[in-house]
Write a structure and sequence with these properties.
With 234 residues, the protein is an alpha/beta fold. Helices cover 36% and strands 26% of the residues. The strands form two sheets. It has a six-stranded mixed beta sheet with strand order 5-6-7-3-8-9, sandwiched between helices. The chain has a three-stranded antiparallel beta sheet with strand order 2-1-4, with helices on one face. The longest helix is centred in the C-terminal third of the chain and has 16 residues.
């Protein structure tokens, strides 16, 4: 069953068309890799999905509804779009408690999610003292504060070292094992091959390849399939 649907999505900024007639589905209970070269339109499509940008035409829907129309979006969809948005002078714990309070979520949940993302020891450290990898983990903690079924993650591995990337892989697989659905954008193709179930590849704003990882990759690698798809669409 499709839980996220892009339907003829187009987004133009003056003379630049970032996303063009994108139609694709994300299936429930699976990890879907959203891949493409720099400037392919991935982040723009995700911003349209999360009502951070308004489509020029077409739609991006979550369970058949626009994100802005969800009754309690934080409890339905968790998102990591960028690592900003935190008060750098406050601790990670304080930032999470403020966000939780705004969504009607109890204080205790902030401690729970910090433990889940391995930031318990840094809970009282100011965010301005966090490394990029720590900020990524804090963003993930924010995304799961409301215990949403759906996660939308834009380059969540940025700033993570190899141990952190392996941790993220296991973290995402545990979430899907517990019934979550995840749409993840990443440039780390080798890691995506070990992580995702389905693949969407876009180039110049258009969908060029979609399918299960096994079908897209065949007997080769995701990197080879990626390059083949992009070159064929050029």
């Amino acid at each position: 069953m499709s839980i996220i649907a892009f339907q003829g999505l187009t987004k133009a900024y003056k003379d630049v068309v970032a996303v063009k007639d994108l139609t694709a589905n994300v299936e429930a209970g699976r990890i879907t890799g959203f891949l493409g070269p720099n400037g392919a339109g991935k982040s723009t499509a995700l911003k349209c999905l999360l009502s951070l940008a308004t489509p020029t035409s077409g739609t991006a829907l979550i369970r058949g509804a626009k994100y802005q129309d969800l009754v309690n979006p934080m409890k339905e969809v968790g998102a990591v779009i960028e690592t900003g948005g935190f008060n750098p002078s406050l601790s990670g714990l304080k930032n999470l408690r403020i966000i939780a309070a705004s969504a009607g979520i109890g204080d205790g949940r902030a401690l729970e999610v910090l433990e889940l993302v391995d930031l318990t020891d840094a809970r009282n450290k100011k965010v301005k003292q966090y490394s990029l990898g720590m900020k990524q983990r804090l963003s993930l903690a924010t995304a799961i504060l409301g215990e949403p079924e759906i996660l939308v993650l834009d380059e969540p591995a940025n700033g993570l070292d190899p141990i952190g990337i392996a941790w993220l892989r296991d973290f995402l697989k545990k979430l899907t094992a517990n019934g979550h659905s995840i749409l993840i954008s990443s440039h780390q193709l080798a890691e995506m091959q070990n992580t995702v179930d389905d693949v969407l590849i876009i180039h110049k704003g258009r969908l060029v390849t979609e399918g299960t990882m096994a079908n897209v990759v065949g007997s080769g690698t995701l990197e080879e399939a990626f390059i083949r798809s992009v070159e064929a669409s050029a």
